[in-house]
Amino acid sequence: MKKILICFLLVTSLSSGQEPVILSLPEAVSYALDHKAEAEKARLDIIKANAQIAEVRSNALPHLNGSANTSYNPLLQENILPGEFFGRPGEDIAVAFGRKWNSTATVQLTQTLFNQAVFTGLKAARSTKEFYQLNAQLTNEEIIEKVATAYYQVYQTLQMLENVESNLKLTEQTVEIVKGLYETGLAKKIDYDRSRVALNNLIANRQRMINAVELRENALKFMIGMSISQEIKLPEQNFQPSLLPNESLEMTDRTELQLLAKQIELLNWQKKATLAEYYPSASLSANYGWLGQGDEVPIWNGEDKGVFWSDLASVGINIRIPIFNGFATKSRVKQNQIDIEKAQADFQETELALQLAYSNAVAQLENSFITIETQVENVELAREVLEDSQNNYELGLATLNDLLDAERDWATAKNNLTNARLDYKLAEVEVLKSQGKIEILKENKL
């Protein structure tokens, strides 16, 4: 119901031109999982797997086929028979068998009695469905990671824009102060001009940040499958970083490894299907049909036109026993085994890579946490230096360079804090992904 409500509000807002939609991270993730093409294709793969299972199962079910044929024989084949059959001993007589026209209509039923390849295929088909389900889960996790990254990047850009606007207001005050001192003869014109240059640079920088915000928002909308024309607004948040609990890494929770394990299972089924070529197979067949013969087209004629109809039926069991195929099956089995061993090597390599990613993510998270604490203190120190520089400049104890440098240092410190917070949130996403718990982002528990 929550997903339906979110989609309804977004579509309604888009169609009626209402206020921008306030989009939280869980709402963005839910929207992406419902609308992104990758998620939809993963869901279609699961449906496709059901169809594949039904296709394989059909090989174990009865098959019923019908056929019909009408043929004209302008020249009938003649066979040589001894004359004794016709009371003419010592002669060979050519006799033509059949009639000019023949029509047949047949229904054939076949049923597999034993075929090891069919039974193996049924088991492999179920594993194929599980493979697609795991692939869909992995696709969702990748979408969540990308959406979270894009979402936090929008926040970063918005915060940097806020920093620029804050610094812009401060510089405007500085320009007014320098202007007043210049008009009273207590400051030089070059100081006033330099302060205005700094102000104009900030105005240009603000415009660049406004454009950057729009680009980041468009990237987020594309990432979740939302129309680019839809206006969005992110709710205000005050990110308070806190180290995630140090939990032991359970590699079995990683969807990547589960997917590779399922792939190895499918390769083993493929090998068993190849080995099934060594087994004999048996099937039941039954036929029933009608045969019409005459000198006229049998389809619409009867005995009054010299056409005779008769029915026919047969029931049989077909057994196929493989004896020797030039070692082709043996070669295919060897190829299957090599594919299995390659997949096992990929599994080990992926497991090692995931362990590395987890260690790096935890280290990045801890470093970002320490950096944030340092930058918070640095912002406060830069603010105090700026206030002292303002007071000293007004008293003539500091130069304009000192004041402008203090303003730049304060802006740099705030941007560094913003970047450190983004690095922390991105590292947080990586840690959750490494622990196989990234879907927690859908529940707004962070």
List keywords for this structure.
4-stranded antiparallel beta sheet; two-stranded parallel sheet; 8 helices; disordered N terminus; 446 residues; Outer membrane efflux proteins (OEP); 8 strands; alpha+beta
Number of DSSP helices? 8
Q: Examine the secondary-structure arrangement and name the CATH architecture.
A: Up-down Bundle
Radius of gyration: 40 Å
Low-confidence stretches at least 5 residues in length (pLDDT < 50)? 1-6, 8-16
Q: Determine and state the CATH class.
A: Mainly Alpha
Strand order of the largest sheet: 2-5-7-8
Q: Describe the largest sheet.
A: 4 strands, antiparallel
Please give the number of β-strands.
Answer: 8
Outline, from the CA principal axes? elongated
Structural class: alpha+beta
Q: What is the CATH T-level topology?
A: Outer membrane efflux proteins (OEP)
Distance between the termini: 22 Å
* Percent of residues in beta strands: 5-15%
Percentage of residues assigned to helices:
55-70%
Classified in CATH, the superfamily is Outer membrane efflux proteins (OEP)
Count of domain modules: 1
The overall pLDDT, averaged over residues, is 85
Give helix and strand order, one letter per element, not per position.
HEHHEEEEHHEHEEHH
Write the layout of secondary structure elements.
Elements: H1 2-16, E1 21-22, H2 25-35, H3 37-58, E2 63-72, E3 78-82, E4 92-96, E5 101-114, H4 116-183, H5 189-224, E6 232-233, H6 255-275, E7 281-294, E8 308-320, H7 328-394, H8 400-434
Parallel strand pairs: 1-6
Antiparallel strand pairs: 2-5, 3-4, 5-7, 7-8
Helix pairs in contact: 2-4, 3-4, 4-5, 4-6, 4-8, 6-7, 7-8
